[in-house]
Amino acid sequence: MKKHAIAAAVLGSVLCASAFAQQAEEGSWMVRARAVHLDSSNGDSTGLGLSINDKWLPEFDVTYFYNKNLAVELILTVPQKQTLSSNGAAIGSFKHLPPTLTLQYHFDAQGFKPYVGAGINYTRLSAVHLPAGVTVDRNSFGPALQVGVDIPVAKNLYLNFDVKKVYIRTDVSAAGAKIGRFKVDPMLVGVGLGWRF
Protein backbone atom coordinates (compact mmCIF):
# COMPACT_ATOMS: atom_id res chain seq x y z
CA MET A 1 0.00 0.00 0.00
CA LYS A 2 2.87 2.35 0.90
CA LYS A 3 4.53 1.62 -2.45
CA HIS A 4 1.35 2.60 -4.29
CA ALA A 5 1.07 5.81 -2.28
CA ILE A 6 4.72 6.68 -2.96
CA ALA A 7 4.32 5.91 -6.67
CA ALA A 8 1.18 8.06 -6.84
CA ALA A 9 2.96 10.92 -5.05
CA VAL A 10 5.96 10.70 -7.41
CA LEU A 11 3.67 10.56 -10.48
CA GLY A 12 1.69 13.53 -9.20
CA SER A 13 4.89 15.50 -8.62
CA VAL A 14 6.13 14.69 -12.13
CA LEU A 15 2.80 15.74 -13.68
CA CYS A 16 2.73 18.99 -11.70
CA ALA A 17 6.32 19.75 -12.66
CA SER A 18 5.48 19.03 -16.29
CA ALA A 19 2.45 21.32 -16.14
CA PHE A 20 4.49 24.12 -14.56
CA ALA A 21 7.24 23.65 -17.16
CA GLN A 22 4.68 23.83 -19.98
CA GLN A 23 3.18 26.97 -18.48
CA ALA A 24 6.62 28.52 -18.13
CA GLU A 25 7.33 27.76 -21.80
CA GLU A 26 4.18 29.55 -22.95
CA GLY A 27 4.93 32.97 -24.36
CA SER A 28 3.05 36.22 -23.88
CA TRP A 29 1.68 36.31 -27.45
CA MET A 30 -0.89 34.24 -29.29
CA VAL A 31 -2.17 34.51 -32.84
CA ARG A 32 -5.26 32.74 -34.16
CA ALA A 33 -6.87 32.24 -37.54
CA ARG A 34 -10.57 31.37 -37.60
CA ALA A 35 -13.40 30.66 -39.99
CA VAL A 36 -16.35 32.63 -38.61
CA HIS A 37 -20.05 32.51 -39.41
CA LEU A 38 -21.82 35.88 -39.19
CA ASP A 39 -25.49 35.62 -38.24
CA SER A 40 -27.13 39.07 -38.22
CA SER A 41 -30.03 39.86 -35.88
CA ASN A 42 -31.40 42.28 -38.53
CA GLY A 43 -33.22 44.59 -36.12
CA ASP A 44 -34.90 47.43 -38.02
CA SER A 45 -36.94 50.45 -36.92
CA THR A 46 -37.18 52.09 -40.37
CA GLY A 47 -40.29 50.24 -41.51
CA LEU A 48 -38.39 49.03 -44.59
CA GLY A 49 -37.80 45.48 -43.38
CA LEU A 50 -34.02 45.80 -43.78
CA SER A 51 -31.73 42.81 -43.52
CA ILE A 52 -28.27 41.66 -44.59
CA ASN A 53 -27.11 38.22 -45.66
CA ASP A 54 -25.45 35.78 -43.27
CA LYS A 55 -22.03 34.60 -44.40
CA TRP A 56 -18.74 32.88 -43.57
CA LEU A 57 -15.69 35.11 -43.27
CA PRO A 58 -12.00 34.84 -42.33
CA GLU A 59 -10.86 36.25 -39.01
CA PHE A 60 -7.40 36.87 -37.56
CA ASP A 61 -6.56 37.93 -34.04
CA VAL A 62 -3.54 38.85 -31.95
CA THR A 63 -3.64 38.29 -28.18
CA TYR A 64 -1.21 39.57 -25.56
CA PHE A 65 -1.18 37.87 -22.12
CA TYR A 66 -0.37 40.15 -19.19
CA ASN A 67 -0.26 37.03 -17.01
CA LYS A 68 -1.72 33.50 -17.13
CA ASN A 69 -5.28 34.78 -16.65
CA LEU A 70 -5.52 38.29 -18.09
CA ALA A 71 -5.14 39.06 -21.79
CA VAL A 72 -6.16 41.59 -24.42
CA GLU A 73 -7.20 40.52 -27.93
CA LEU A 74 -7.38 42.52 -31.18
CA ILE A 75 -9.75 40.87 -33.68
CA LEU A 76 -9.38 41.67 -37.37
CA THR A 77 -10.74 40.68 -40.76
CA VAL A 78 -10.82 42.12 -44.28
CA PRO A 79 -13.67 44.36 -45.49
CA GLN A 80 -16.75 42.19 -45.92
CA LYS A 81 -19.32 42.82 -48.66
CA GLN A 82 -22.96 42.47 -47.57
CA THR A 83 -26.16 42.58 -49.60
CA LEU A 84 -28.80 44.86 -48.09
CA SER A 85 -32.39 43.76 -48.64
CA SER A 86 -35.79 45.32 -47.99
CA ASN A 87 -38.55 42.81 -47.21
CA GLY A 88 -36.42 40.10 -48.82
CA ALA A 89 -35.59 41.97 -52.05
CA ALA A 90 -32.02 43.18 -52.62
CA ILE A 91 -31.81 46.99 -52.76
CA GLY A 92 -28.07 47.60 -52.45
CA SER A 93 -24.81 46.62 -50.81
CA PHE A 94 -21.99 47.88 -48.63
CA LYS A 95 -18.70 46.71 -47.15
CA HIS A 96 -17.95 46.72 -43.45
CA LEU A 97 -14.65 46.54 -41.58
CA PRO A 98 -15.24 45.67 -37.90
CA PRO A 99 -12.03 45.62 -35.77
CA THR A 100 -12.80 44.61 -32.19
CA LEU A 101 -10.73 44.88 -29.00
CA THR A 102 -11.58 42.72 -25.98
CA LEU A 103 -10.17 42.27 -22.49
CA GLN A 104 -10.19 38.56 -21.61
CA TYR A 105 -10.06 36.42 -18.49
CA HIS A 106 -8.61 32.93 -19.01
CA PHE A 107 -9.63 30.34 -16.43
CA ASP A 108 -7.29 27.77 -14.89
CA ALA A 109 -8.35 24.34 -16.15
CA GLN A 110 -6.75 20.99 -16.92
CA GLY A 111 -6.56 19.99 -20.59
CA PHE A 112 -8.28 23.08 -22.02
CA LYS A 113 -8.30 26.84 -21.53
CA PRO A 114 -11.74 28.53 -21.44
CA TYR A 115 -12.02 32.31 -21.48
CA VAL A 116 -14.53 35.16 -21.44
CA GLY A 117 -14.06 38.64 -22.83
CA ALA A 118 -15.69 42.03 -23.18
CA GLY A 119 -14.67 45.08 -25.15
CA ILE A 120 -15.49 47.51 -27.91
CA ASN A 121 -16.15 47.27 -31.63
CA TYR A 122 -15.64 49.93 -34.28
CA THR A 123 -17.23 49.29 -37.67
CA ARG A 124 -16.59 51.37 -40.77
CA LEU A 125 -19.01 51.10 -43.68
CA SER A 126 -17.63 51.71 -47.17
CA ALA A 127 -18.51 51.09 -50.83
CA VAL A 128 -22.13 51.89 -49.97
CA HIS A 129 -24.54 51.43 -52.88
CA LEU A 130 -28.15 52.26 -51.97
CA PRO A 131 -31.21 53.67 -53.76
CA ALA A 132 -31.03 57.38 -54.61
CA GLY A 133 -31.65 59.58 -51.58
CA VAL A 134 -31.04 56.78 -49.02
CA THR A 135 -27.96 57.09 -46.82
CA VAL A 136 -26.54 55.34 -43.76
CA ASP A 137 -24.15 56.46 -41.03
CA ARG A 138 -20.71 55.17 -42.01
CA ASN A 139 -19.36 54.69 -38.43
CA SER A 140 -20.55 52.49 -35.58
CA PHE A 141 -19.20 52.02 -32.04
CA GLY A 142 -20.61 49.37 -29.75
CA PRO A 143 -19.84 46.78 -27.09
CA ALA A 144 -18.64 43.25 -27.80
CA LEU A 145 -19.00 40.13 -25.64
CA GLN A 146 -17.00 36.94 -26.09
CA VAL A 147 -16.68 33.38 -24.78
CA GLY A 148 -14.34 30.71 -26.07
CA VAL A 149 -11.91 27.90 -25.39
CA ASP A 150 -8.41 26.93 -26.50
CA ILE A 151 -7.73 23.18 -26.58
CA PRO A 152 -4.05 22.09 -26.78
CA VAL A 153 -3.34 19.82 -29.77
CA ALA A 154 0.48 20.10 -29.92
CA LYS A 155 3.24 22.15 -28.34
CA ASN A 156 2.10 25.80 -28.45
CA LEU A 157 -0.70 24.87 -30.92
CA TYR A 158 -4.37 25.11 -29.95
CA LEU A 159 -7.76 24.32 -31.45
CA ASN A 160 -9.99 27.32 -30.80
CA PHE A 161 -13.78 27.68 -30.53
CA ASP A 162 -15.08 31.22 -30.10
CA VAL A 163 -18.48 32.95 -29.91
CA LYS A 164 -18.94 36.72 -29.97
CA LYS A 165 -21.94 39.05 -29.80
CA VAL A 166 -21.07 42.38 -31.42
CA TYR A 167 -23.35 45.43 -31.44
CA ILE A 168 -23.22 47.17 -34.85
CA ARG A 169 -25.86 49.81 -35.64
CA THR A 170 -26.36 52.52 -38.24
CA ASP A 171 -28.86 55.33 -38.67
CA VAL A 172 -30.77 55.28 -41.97
CA SER A 173 -31.87 58.49 -43.67
CA ALA A 174 -34.01 59.26 -46.71
CA ALA A 175 -33.96 62.66 -48.42
CA GLY A 176 -31.77 63.93 -45.58
CA ALA A 177 -34.16 62.97 -42.76
CA LYS A 178 -33.52 60.10 -40.35
CA ILE A 179 -36.16 57.39 -40.73
CA GLY A 180 -34.83 54.84 -38.23
CA ARG A 181 -31.97 52.63 -37.18
CA PHE A 182 -30.76 49.34 -38.60
CA LYS A 183 -29.21 46.98 -36.02
CA VAL A 184 -26.92 44.35 -37.51
CA ASP A 185 -25.86 43.12 -34.02
CA PRO A 186 -24.36 39.85 -35.33
CA MET A 187 -23.60 36.63 -33.51
CA LEU A 188 -20.19 35.41 -34.66
CA VAL A 189 -19.39 31.71 -34.22
CA GLY A 190 -15.84 30.71 -35.10
CA VAL A 191 -13.44 27.77 -35.18
CA GLY A 192 -9.73 27.92 -35.89
CA LEU A 193 -6.17 27.35 -34.76
CA GLY A 194 -3.99 29.38 -32.39
CA TRP A 195 -0.23 29.53 -31.89
CA ARG A 196 1.28 30.70 -28.59
CA PHE A 197 4.80 32.08 -28.59
UniProtKB/TrEMBL annotation:
<dbReference type="Pfam" id="PF03922">
    <property type="entry name" value="OmpW"/>
</dbReference>
<dbReference type="GO" id="GO:0055085">
    <property type="term" value="P:transmembrane transport"/>
</dbReference>
<feature type="signal peptide">
    <location>
        <begin position="1"/>
        <end position="21"/>
    </location>
</feature>
<dbReference type="InterPro" id="IPR005618">
    <property type="entry name" value="OMPW"/>
</dbReference>
<protein>
    <submittedName>
        <fullName>Outer membrane protein</fullName>
    </submittedName>
</protein>
<keyword id="KW-0732">Signal</keyword>
<dbReference type="InterPro" id="IPR011250">
    <property type="entry name" value="OMP/PagP_B-barrel"/>
</dbReference>
<dbReference type="GO" id="GO:0009279">
    <property type="term" value="C:cell outer membrane"/>
</dbReference>
